[in-house]
Specification:
Elements (H helix, E strand, L loop, with lengths): L19 H4 E9 L5 E7 L8 E6 L13 E8 L7 E13 L9 E10 L4
Amino acid sequence: MKNNSKQSNFMEKRTSPRNYLDIFYSVEITVTANDQTSLCYQFKLRNISESGMCVLVSEKSEILHHLQTGSVIDIKYCPVNPDHPHKKMRTEIKHITYVPGKETAGKGHYYVGLLIKDNNQA
């Protein structure tokens, strides 16, 4: 008898290994304002290159004053599966690149590139 199950013949078709974008949907970045108030920002993760992930930040967002290329900060990663726990990981800000309004919805934005440096829970 012939097995018609597609799952039994499943082969991974990815050319690169699974990445963090398969596991995490969004991030929460907490920064401290001048008056020592903690500000928490949440961004959807985006895939703009094979090896990188980023968030899209409005050019008017206050968080841009708190981020620097090359800095390493703790970022809370929120999973795709809501049954899985959030994970805080050391992350490097790889780049902050301006994107004109015609390439994004509305006014100009910045792509903030993220690189996870340590995937152990902080």
